[in-house]
Amino acid sequence: MKNLQDATEKICDLKGSLVAMDALLTALLRELPSPLRDGLQHSFAGHAEVARTVMLHASISEHTIVAFERDVQRFTSLLSGAPAAAAASAAVPPG
């Protein structure tokens, strides 16, 4: 039972860290000037594609892939200047 408790606590810790990073990235992306966002969007698209390729050849949960794609879409929307409400709708879900 101790191992399950430890795993649960670690998962909760990771969720909290992820939400904090999500908030930081969202704020950062909204504050970047448009020319910098354009360059970052291009670079991010390339890095996301590399990550997709790596995940396709790895033993990885479908939940992880779905979360990755959701967040790539969200960050791409933020970089393109999508309205805040649309970008916020894909934020890290509670759990």
Describe this structure as you would to a colleague.
This protein has helices at 2-31, 34-56, 62-79, 84-88. α2 runs antiparallel to α3. It has one domain. The protein is flat. The protein is built from 4 helices and no strands. The protein has 95 residues and is mostly helical. The model has no long low-confidence stretch (mean pLDDT 88).
Kindly state the mean pLDDT as a whole number? 88
Order of helices and strands: HHHH
Amino-to-carboxy terminus distance: 21 Å
Discrete helix count: 4
Class by alpha and beta content: mainly alpha
Low-confidence stretches: none
Q: How many E-type strands?
A: 0
Helix content: over 70%
Biggest sheet descriptor: none
User: Roughly what fraction of the amino acids lie in strands?
Assistant: under 5%
State Rg.
15 Å
* Total domains: 1
Outline, from the CA principal axes? flat
Short description:
The chain contains 4 helices and no strands. The protein has 95 residues and is mainly alpha-helical. Helix 2 (34-56) packs antiparallel against helix 3.
SSE blueprint:
Elements: H1 2-31, H2 34-56, H3 62-79, H4 84-88
Which structural traits does this protein have?
single chain; mainly alpha; 95 residues
